[in-house]
Specification:
The protein is built from 32 helices and 33 strands. The chain is elongated. By secondary structure, it is of the alpha/beta class. The protein starts with 9 loop residues before the first strand and ends with a helix. A six-stranded antiparallel β-sheet has the order 18-17-16-21-20-19, sandwiched between helices. Strands 2-1-3-4-5 form a five-stranded parallel β-sheet, sandwiched between helices. A five-stranded antiparallel β-sheet has the order 7-6-10-9-8, sandwiched between helices. Helix 16 crosses helix 20 and helix 20 runs antiparallel to helix 21.
Length: 979
């Protein structure tokens, strides 16, 4: 078994600094890359390093690089190894002479297909090197032994020769290889029976002569490619290398060299070029865009479709980018982004729609598929794209979108004429050869009226308007009469057009197709949609379908407008009815507003009228209990205490009424904050403690462990719990039990306050009456309990405005349980109080928390502005507490007294004669020295917005009458802490 010969790899050093040149050289080797060791260098340092580390068979050097020139590279390389073959890649022919003088063995001028020549040139240079070596060995063999010379010549694959330097190339010696190459024996050439020049192709003879003479003159070896005819007249492509033989006087005496047959190599190159040409024809004939681009967006492949779109040639496109032709930077950036996405991801990308601006500035729509393209080394550095031009499809879609737009505009209320005109224009844009006309049938279904015909002259439209329909009346009259389409392929010959031919000729129309517009609801004819042509024509099926489609759209529009007219009439009637009803409602609303205002005024008045005498009663009772006006007997003290207790009860009823009024008016403000549950419950239990003790009841407070605080209005929560506890105590017989349980529901994130008792209970049928104001459950068992029936109503309203709920469970004669449910965002470890509380001026609800102040011996001066009888009580009480009191009966007097007496604090009633308290406060605050003087406002008419109006006018504190004298004193001491 024969051993396979080991393949010899060709070692090549490629000198280039531009990546595209490197890529082209790599592409040129194609499938031969496995037999080649290709190294690359771009700087002098890299060249030196490469040559010192490896033995190369050949050098490829690009010319005019940014870092060097080929001539300089030749000097450097030849200086290291004079026998190392160098091929120069030139951009033009101007440097040929220079590089050849410097010792270049071969050159290639770069052109669109130059990469295909690289293999061939390299092979030629390597063959030259090989045959030069062989020639030397032959010469050495001749000197050594004739046998070696004869063996070499015999086995030489070609023709070795020695000849004269004449035009006949007269042979002095020819090797036996001439028989294989030419078909002639060596003797034929030596005897001059055959002249070698006669074998050379006539077109190549002068070229061969001139090049040989030029090289011999320079005493250089010559290399030639030319054609010869052998004995059978078969043309062969040969490659020759030779040189001059000189005597001792340096005179040329002969030429020696060898000629080899390169026909097969040339044929392979020719076949390759033909294949390339075939491939080029295939992709150029393809109507799709076919292209390839590198990472930088440079075209490395493009077919004629791409070149035509960009207004250039295929060769003009290679090495260029989209932005060299496309002025739309947004499109170019998107192309490059998509290309890089495919290259980097190595995954194909389908782009259903993308725009490209062509050489004429027109927008073309493409549907593109981009795929990663790998090079010989397997690395993906390019993208291959195939794009289909879908511009016509897109244009038709845009036109049909225009139909959608027309229908959409119809919905916005455009007129019927505008709608029909837009419909006709859209149809004409879709089919430029058509002229559209829409006629409408009158209400009596006898006469056609002009609807829309944007491309027909007015005189024609006026002439057709009013045409009576019937058989044989043109195409439109016929279609409207029969309810079927009617056509005239040649108007000048069709009998239905006999009465209209002159008019048609004047307009320049020669054919007509008319489709009746049919109502979709009734099936009746509404008009006609006609299409005219300027030449005799039979519409295609597509055109007929388009006409029918537009006729249906016209029918939709006409019916829509008819419906709108009907609706407009109905709307007019309905509008009149609504206006009448609205007027009635406005009148009733005014009456309701007036009634609400009267209610507020009545409540304010009643509050004032009730609080004013009540304030006097409670104030005098408090003075008497303090024995400011004299000593009292124990019986008198009990009587006065009873008066005060009943007065306080009456005050609570009034306050409940006013709170309900505020809630109903939507003007009750909440002071939401984080509050301690245990503290609130303890306060409530202490407040009802006397009532519990009085009835000898057992009170139980149970707070579930872990519940520390909640978010709510502390004052209103106390008000709710005290009302519920008071009710439980009221309806529980002596020696019974009442209690307050506090629990947490983790499921609903809420806290439950349950007030329970062992009292008389409530029937389930009476639950609906529980929370109605001024209502108590009827019956002999319940009417005996006192109260106006406001407590539970107020509880219900205060619960709802805090987002909570109130639940009732009760059994007659066994007791009741009222459960208050308050939702919480964060039940345990609450830290959000700051987010829920609002900073407001101090109000009545906060006075109970004022600290006691220490007074010095100096008497503070207080101005009391009030026209009621209780000023005497206030004056006596404050004088008793060590204050100097100045009394004023109206607002004007209060302002003057303030300016003259400079009081330390002012008590101002809101409702006073001559000048009300609010205006008086404003006048006082305008004075420079009274900007910071403490002012307390009070009134018996406590209604929604009273507190806000007082604080906004400049007051520091707002109190409602009747004012407990201790509370008033605490407020004064708080505002005058240094007194």
């Amino acid at each position: 078994m024969k051993r396979k010969k080991k393949k010899i790899r060709t070692r090549i050093l490629h000198i280039a600094s531009i990546q595209s040149d490197r890529d082209l050289v790599q592409d040129a080797f194609g499938d031969l890359i496995d037999t080649i060791d290709l190294a690359e260098a771009s700087t002098k340092k890299e060249i030196k390093s490469a040559l010192s580390q490896s033995k190369f068979d050949i050098i490829l050097s690009n010319v005019n690089e940014t870092k060097y020139r080929s001539a300089n590279v030749l000097d450097y390389v030849k200086g290291i190894d004079a026998n190392l073959p160098v091929i120069c890649l030139l951009g033009n022919s101007f440097e040929i002479e220079e590089v050849l003088k410097k010792g270049a063995d071969e050159f290639i001028i770069k052109s669109p297909g130059y990469s295909l020549e690289i293999n061939y040139r390299i092979q030629n240079v390597l063959d030259k090197k090989f045959y030069n070596s062989e020639l030397i060995r032959v010469q050495q063999g001749v000197r050594e032994t004739e046998r070696k010379f004869d063996t070499l010549i015999t086995n030489f694959p070609g023709l070795a020769y020695r000849c004269k330097n004449d035009h006949d190339w007269t042979m002095e010696y020819v090797s036996d290889g001439c028989l294989t190459l030419t078909g002639y024996a060596a003797e034929d050439f030596i005897s001059k029976r055959v002249l070698f020049n006669d074998l050379i192709h006539p077109d190549d003879r002068s070229v061969v002569w001139e090049k040989v003479q030029d090289q011999v003159k320079q005493k250089k070896f010559f290399q030639l490619e030319y054609r010869i005819f052998d004995k059978s007249n078969l043309m062969r492509q040969v490659w020759e290398q030779g040189g001059g033989v000189y005597d001792e006087n340096d005179q040329l005496i002969a030429l020696e060299g060898f000629v080899i047959d390169t026909s097969e190599q040339k044929q392979a190159i020719t076949n390759y070029k033909e294949q390339q040409q075939f491939f080029r024809q295939v992709i150029d004939m393809n109507p799709n865009f076919i292209f390839a681009k590198d990472r930088q967006g440079y075209f490395t492949l493009a077919n004629q479709a791409v070149a035509t779109a960009y207004g250039t040639s295929v060769d003009g496109l290679i090495g260029k980018r989209d932005n060299d032709f496309n002025p739309n930077s947004d499109e170019v950036e998107q192309f490059l982004a998509d290309d890089l996405d495919v290259i980097n991801s190595k995954i194909y990308k389908y782009i259903p729609e993308e725009k490209i601006t062509d050489a004429t500035g027109q927008i073309r729509w493409l549907q593109t598929l981009k795929q990663p393209l790998a090079g010989p080394d397997g690395q993906v550095d390019q993208v291959l794209g195939v794009a289909t031009d879908i511009t016509k499809i897109k244009q038709q879609c845009l036109i049909y979108e225009g139909y959608v737009d027309v229908l959409a505009q119809l919905a916005t209320g455009i007129s019927l004429t505008t709608f029909l005109t837009k419909l006709a224009v859209t149809m004409e844009e879709l089919n430029p050869e058509m002229i559209c006309s829409i006629l409408l049938l009158d209400t009596e279904k006898k006469i056609l009226r002009h609807g829309a015909a944007p491309s027909l002259p007015d005189f024609y439209n006026n002439a057709i308007d009013g045409t009576e329909i019937g058989p044989g009346v043109g195409s439109c009259g016929q279609a409207a009469y029969s309810g079927k389409h009617a056509s005239a392929e040649n108007i000048m010959e069709h009998p239905n057009w006999s009465a209209f031919r002159k008019l048609a000729k004047k307009v320049g129309i020669a054919a007509c197709f008319s489709e009746p517009i049919i109502s979709m609801s009734t099936g009746g004819v509404l008009g006609t949609f006609a299409v005219y042509f300027r030449y005799p024509h039979q519409p295609s099926q597509n055109q007929i379908d388009a006409i029918k489609y537009n006729a249906r759209l016209a029918g939709i529009g006409i019916e829509q407008k008819n419906i709108e007219l009907t609706l407009k009439k109905d709307k007019s009637l309905l509008t009149n009815r609504v206006l009448k009803k609205t007027t009635e409602l406005k009148t009733a609303n005014k009456e309701l507003i007036k009634a609400a205002q009267l209610k507020d005024e009545f409540l304010a008045l009643m509050s004032h009228e009730l609080r004013t005498p009540l304030n006097g009663i409670l104030g005098l009772a408090e003075l008497m209990v303090k024995e400011i006006q004299g000593k009292l007997t124990p019986k008198q003290k009990r009587s006065i205490s009873l008066i005060e207790e009943n007065g306080r009860h009456l005050l609570e009823i009034i306050n409940d009424i006013l709170d309900i009024a505020k809630i109903d008016a939507g003007k009750l403000e909440l002071n939401i904050s984080q509050i301690e549950i245990n503290a609130v419950c303890q306060t409530c239990s202490q407040f009802v403690g006397p009532l519990v003790n009085k009835k000898k009841l057992k009170f139980i407070l149970n707070i579930e462990k872990g519940i520390d605080s909640l978010i709510a209005d502390q004052r209103r929560l106390k008000q709710i719990l005290i009302n519920l506890l008071a009710n439980a105590i009221k309806f529980t017989p002596q020696n019974g039990s009442v209690g307050l349980d506090v629990m947490c529901d983790f499921t609903t994130k809420s806290i439950h306050f349950s007030v329970w008792d062992t009292g008389i209970g409530i029937a389930e049928s009476d639950y609906q009456h529980l929370f109605k104001p001024f209502s108590q459950i009827e019956g002999t068992s319940t009417r005996k309990f006192e109260g106006p029936g406001l407590g539970l109503s107020l509880v219900h309203k205060l619960t709802k405005i805090q987002g909570g709920d109130i639940k009732v469970e009760s059994t007659l004669n066994s007791g009741s349980r009222f459960t208050l449910v308050l939702p919480q965002k964060n039940i345990f470890g609450l830290t959000e109080s700051g987010a829920f509380s609002r900073k407001r001026p101090k109000t009545t609800a906060e006075i109970n928390n004022f600290p006691q102040a220490d007074f010095d011996d100096r008497r503070a001066k207080i101005l009391v502005a009030d026209d009621s009888d209780e000023t005497t009580v206030i004056s006596e009480y404050l004088s008793f507490e060590g204050y100097e009191v100045i009394l004023s009966k109206n607002g004007e007097e209060a302002v003057n007294y303030a300016l003259n007496h400079h009081p330390d604090l002012i008590l101002m009633d809101i409702h006073m004669p001559k000048l009300n308290g609010l205006e008086a406060i404003k006048k006082i605050r305008r004075q420079k020295h009274f900007a910071n003087i403490p002012i307390i406002t009070f009134t018996a008419a406590v209604m929604p917005d009273d507190e806000k109006r007082c604080l906004d006018s400049g007051a520091d504190l707002y109190l409602s009458k009747p004012i407990p004298l201790k509370k008033l004193l605490t407020a004064i001491e708080t505002l005058l802490p240094d007194r």
